[in-house]
């Protein structure tokens, strides 16, 4: 029997730090801050069934359900709902757009109440730690003392790790997927190419492009580079090989191969739904992320906390070795950690591909149901 999809949900907004501000890791105090979030399922009486889902780099709070006019498509609909891995008949699922984002939470494209204009580069640099502490403000607001689980892929997995590093007594289950404890030089390098593409666009204007021409060409190139890293050679060969487009008329510098046309389409469509400055801020936050040498694990260990670490064999952007390293550090401290490497051919994006959902869903559903 196919699990049912959930009904449409309303995006909610939580504003905090209106008077004293929010202290960032950079030392700067900033506020007010707003988080856009969505919830699915019901919070039980003792508020012990909450699972916080963290989105990846360009995601939103709309993790599941039908799409409304002002929403992006649900990015994990096959994972969240009645009878699914994140079963809304059992769990209270919530997802918030991170600070620095452009999907309803406060970020560089948000209006600065002091100037009446978007913050642009007046928005402060933020970290993964800042994002998590902002999420904690929301969790406290909802009266949830301890999260049953934190889960996410890619940047979402980094947020899940930061949650247990920052608030080890507030989490029971941790599921980082296709993630890492810190960005490698190669991962930083890919992000820097994207940032430079945006800043080289003549329309960027040092971040002050709001109300005028957008730096679409630079943002599109940044997305094209990023999208290549999300795929695998196997998936690109299967999808495109060296096939030429139907309108191929000879040698030229326009999009001649199918893969060229696909990348150009993905790049330009991304510019319609994402803010270029947000791209700069969030990729920089990911690059700053660093949980080194088991220092993220408290001296007393993590009693009562369970980990399920998932990696994908074809993921060359966040290779399995990075997931294996976090498991090694946990097991050296006698912390319950299960590692699963899925043989999926879609590269880093495998955790977002519905055809790979059965393997991933089974692991997550079994892990959440199993008591230590």
Show the helix and strand layout:
Blueprint: E1 12-16, E2 22-23, E3 29-30, E4 33-40, E5 50-54, E6 80-81, E7 86-87, E8 92-96, E9 111-112, E10 117-118, H1 128-141, E11 147-153, H2 155-166, E12 171-177, H3 185-200, H4 216-230, H5 233-239, H6 258-271, H7 276-288, E13 306-312, H8 320-332, E14 337-342, H9 357-369
Parallel strand pairs: 5-8, 5-11, 6-7, 11-12, 12-13, 13-14
Antiparallel strand pairs: 1-4, 2-3, 4-8, 9-10
Helix pairs in contact: 1-2, 3-4, 3-7, 4-6
Could you describe the largest sheet, including whether it forms a barrel?
8 strands, mixed
Low-confidence stretches: none
Oligomer: single chain
- Write the H/E string, N to C: EEEEEEEEEEHEHEHHHHHEHEH
The proportion of residues forming helix, as a percent range, comes to 25-40%
What is the name of the CATH architecture of the largest domain? 3-Layer(aba) Sandwich
Question: If you had to describe this structure to a student in words, what would you say it looks like?
Answer:
With 372 residues, the chain is an alpha/beta fold. The chain folds into two domains: 12-183 and 290-369, Rossmann fold (3-Layer(aba) Sandwich), CATH 3.40.50; 186-285, Rna Polymerase Sigma Factor, Chain: A. Helix content is 31%, strand content 17%. The chain has nine helices and 14 strands. It has helices at residues 128-141, 155-166, 185-200, 216-230, 233-239, 258-271, 276-288, 320-332, 357-369, and strands at residues 12-16, 22-23, 29-30, 33-40, 50-54, 80-81, 86-87, 92-96, 111-112, 117-118, 147-153, 171-177, 306-312, 337-342. Strands 1-4-8-5-11-12-13-14 form an eight-stranded mixed beta sheet, sandwiched between helices. Strands 2-3 form a two-stranded antiparallel sheet. It has a two-stranded parallel ribbon with strand order 6-7. Helix 3 (185-200) packs antiparallel against helix 4 (216-230) and helix 3 (185-200) runs antiparallel to helix 7 (276-288).
């Amino acid at each position: 029997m196919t699990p049912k999809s959930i009904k449409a949900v309303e995006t909610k907004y939580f504003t905090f730090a209106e008077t004293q501000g929010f202290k960032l890791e950079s030392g700067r105090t900033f506020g007010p801050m707003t988080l856009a979030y969505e919830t699915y399922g019901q919070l039980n009486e003792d508020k012990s069934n909450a699972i916080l889902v963290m989105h990846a780099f360009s995601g939103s709070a709309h993790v599941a359900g039908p799409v409304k006019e002002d929403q992006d498509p649900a990015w994990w609909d096959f994972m969240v709902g009645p009878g699914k891995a994140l079963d809304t008949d059992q769990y209270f699922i919530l997802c918030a757009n991170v600070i620095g984002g452009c999907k309803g939470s406060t970020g560089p494209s948000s209006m600065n109440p002091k100037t009446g204009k978007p913050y642009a580069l007046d928005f402060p640099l933020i970290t993964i730690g800042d994002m998590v502490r902002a999420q904690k403000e929301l969790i406290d607001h909802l009266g949830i003392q301890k999260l049953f689980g934190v889960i996410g892929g890619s940047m979402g997995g980094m947020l899940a790790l930061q949650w247990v590093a920052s608030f080890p007594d507030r989490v029971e289950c941790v599921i980082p997927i296709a993630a890492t404890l810190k960005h490698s030089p190669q991962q930083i390098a890919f992000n820097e190419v994207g940032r430079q593409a945006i800043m080289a666009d003549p329309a960027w204007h040092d971040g002050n492009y709001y109300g005028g021409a957008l730096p679409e060409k630079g943002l599109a190139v940044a997305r094209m580079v990023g999208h290549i890293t999300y795929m695998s050679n196997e998936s690109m060969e299967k999808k495109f090989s060296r096939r030429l487009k139907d309108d191929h008329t000879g040698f030229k510098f326009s999009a001649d191969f199918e893969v060229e046309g696909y990348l150009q389409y993905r790049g330009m469509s991304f510019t319609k739904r994402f803010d270029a400055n947000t791209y700069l801020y969030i990729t920089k936050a990911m690059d700053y992320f660093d949980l080194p040498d088991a220092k993220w694990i408290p001296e007393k260990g993590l009693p009562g906390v369970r980990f399920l670490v998932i990696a994908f064999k074809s993921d060359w952007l966040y290779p399995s070795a990075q997931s294996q390293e976090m498991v090694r550090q946990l097991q050296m401290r006698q912390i319950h950690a299960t590692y699963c490497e899925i043989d999926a051919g879609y590269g880093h994006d495998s955790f977002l591909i519905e055809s790979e959902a059965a393997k991933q869903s089974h692991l997550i559903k079994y892990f959440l149901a199993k008591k230590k």
